[in-house]
């Protein structure tokens, strides 16, 4: 009787594509749906540095006893120093391990709600889960349309103008690099302008950094986040190791908070720990332990960074091949060359997305977002052909 007031919720449209693609018997089907890295053979392999760290853990881990709501503190500090660098002095930063980047975002949202922050501004479109995560915690998302799909451009002026509607104390969400779902990031001058505007308007930035190393390179990809953190007294940085360590299902992430001084940082951390305890008590250990073993060992770190760089180069070369298709019908694939990382969103209608799936077994998000890692080299040409076929058939 207690559940009769509930209404059925729709399946998550992105996760649903995994099942639809798996059930499609057509050979040569292409899965450009959920954002996982794939190699040329379509596999999402466990990275060799990760395998080596796992073997070491198997040998040396003496206990599975609880750690605590902050998780693996060695992981948190090694990762934090690597990502934040010297953008802010480490005594102004605190951090804790979270179940994936999503856990870090959820904790951010609850901290904002607890601190009385009622609104968070974000460029639109954003990752489909961003708005629900904040709304569910009681922080209302406000969207600022600022991407042009036809030209594949980020409208910096439009975004800054949108922020003028934010009032002191509001939060603003930023994609640290490799924007999901568009793939277009601000350039260095753009990051400076955004950081200045956030500081002027006394907004609280929440940076979501989930693809570090898949854009311009591992260190360069943190520059935007670092510029933001350096510009303001308080900021949050939600970090995911899903993609750059290939740890997806291990749910490995962290949340870092910078504050004006160490004392405030301690208060912030105590609130984050209390919120974590009430949510998941303690985060899962295995993925974070793997990352710690890698980051504490120079040889493993070098191996991991080489593998990550190979992944980055594969994405960049697939993107260049895709862009070689040029203008096909209403889609200017050439413009996709402006982007970085795993994703691009093509200006396709839902009818066109469905047509490509039904006619050509090409699966992508309903928004027209494609995971570029989903292609192998031969499939890029097949994708060009499919778009030509769609144009010839006048599918709009
Ligand atoms: C994606 O956007 O495809 C990934 O971040 C996976 C997810 O959970 O949506």
Key features of this structure:
binds (2S)-2-hydroxybutanedioic acid; single chain; Aspartate Aminotransferase, domain 1; 15 strands; alpha/beta; Aspartate Aminotransferase, domain 2; 2 domains; 396 residues
What does the model show?
The protein has two domains: 13-46 and 312-391, Alpha-Beta Complex (Aspartate Aminotransferase, domain 1); 50-298, Type I PLP-dependent aspartate aminotransferase-like (Major domain) (Aspartate Aminotransferase, domain 2), CATH 3.40.640. β11 (327-328) and β12 form a beta hairpin. The protein has 13 helices and 15 strands. The N and C termini lie far apart (47 Å). Helix content is 43%, strand content 15%. (2S)-2-hydroxybutanedioic acid binds next to loops.
CATH superfamily of the largest domain: Type I PLP-dependent aspartate aminotransferase-like (Major domain)
Named CATH topology of the largest domain = Aspartate Aminotransferase, domain 2
Following the backbone from N to C, one meets helices and strands in this order, namely HEHHEHEHEEEHEHEHEEHHHEEEHEEH
Bound molecules: (2S)-2-hydroxybutanedioic acid
The count of DSSP E runs of length 2 or more, i.e. the number of strands, is 15
Number of helices: 13
Order of strands across the biggest sheet? 2-10-9-8-7-3-4
Task: Please give the radius of gyration in angstroms.
Answer: 21 Å
Could you tell me the strand content as a percent range?
15-25%
Ends apart, CA distance between termini: 47 Å
Fold blueprint:
Layout: H1 13-23, E1 30-31, H2 48-60, H3 73-84, E2 93-99, H4 100-114, E3 119-124, H5 130-136, E4 140-145, E5 147-148, E6 153-154, H6 156-163, E7 171-175, H7 188-200, E8 204-209, H8 223-231, E9 235-240, E10 252-258, H9 262-279, H10 286-295, H11 298-323, E11 327-328, E12 331-332, E13 343-345, H12 350-360, E14 362-363, E15 369-371, H13 377-392
Parallel strand pairs: 1-14, 3-4, 3-7, 7-8, 8-9
Antiparallel strand pairs: 2-10, 5-6, 9-10, 11-12, 13-15
Helix pairs in contact: 2-10, 2-11, 3-10, 4-5, 4-9, 7-8
This protein binds (2S)-2-hydroxybutanedioic acid (LMR).
């Amino acid at each position: 009787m207690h559940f009769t007031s509930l209404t059925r919720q729709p399946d998550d449209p992105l996760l649903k594509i995994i099942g639809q693609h798996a059930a499609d018997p057509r050979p040569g089907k292409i899965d450009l749906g959920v954002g996982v890295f794939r190699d040329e053979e379509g596999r999402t392999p466990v990275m060799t540095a990760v395998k080596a760290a796992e073997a070491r853990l198997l040998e040396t881990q003496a206990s599975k006893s609880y750690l605590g709501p902050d998780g693996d503190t060695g992981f948190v500090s090694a990762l934090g120093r690597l990502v934040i660098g010297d953008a802010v002095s480490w005594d102004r930063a605190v951090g804790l391990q979270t179940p994936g980047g999503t856990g870090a975002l959820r904790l951010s949202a609850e901290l904002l709600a607890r601190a009385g922050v009622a609104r968070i501004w974000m460029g639109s479109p954003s990752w489909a889960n961003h708005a629900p995560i904040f709304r569910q915690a009681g922080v209302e998302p406000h969207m600022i349309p600022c991407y042009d799909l036809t030209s594949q451009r980020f409208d910096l002026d439009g975004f800054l103008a949108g922020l003028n509607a934010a009032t002191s104390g509001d939060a603003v969400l930023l994609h640290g690099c490799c924007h999901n779902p568009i793939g277009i990031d601000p350039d260095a001058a753009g990051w400076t302008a955004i950081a200045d505007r956030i500081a002027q308007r006394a907004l609280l930035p929440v940076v979501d950094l989930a693809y570090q190393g898949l854009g311009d390179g591992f260190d360069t990809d943190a520059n935007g986040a670092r510029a933001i953190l350096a510009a303001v007294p308080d900021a949050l940085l939600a970090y995911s190791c899903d993609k750059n360590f290939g740890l997806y299902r291990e749910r490995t992430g962290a949340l870092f908070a910078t504050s004006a001084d160490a004392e405030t940082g301690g208060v912030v951390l105590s609130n984050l720990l209390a919120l974590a305890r009430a949510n998941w008590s303690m985060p899962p250990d295995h993925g974070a332990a793997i990352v710690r073993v890698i980051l504490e060992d120079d040889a493993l770190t070098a191996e991991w960074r080489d593998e990550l760089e190979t992944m980055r180069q594969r994405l960049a070369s697939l993107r260049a091949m895709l862009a070689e298709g040029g203008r096909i019908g209403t889609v200017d694939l050439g413009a996709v060359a402006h982007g970085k990382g795993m994703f691009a969103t093509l200006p396709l209608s839902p009818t066109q997305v469905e047509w490509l799936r039904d006619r050509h077994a090409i699966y992508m998000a309903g928004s027209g977002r494609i995971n570029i890692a989903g292609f192998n080299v031969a499939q890029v040409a097949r994708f060009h052909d499919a778009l030509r076929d769609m144009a010839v058939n006048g599918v709009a």
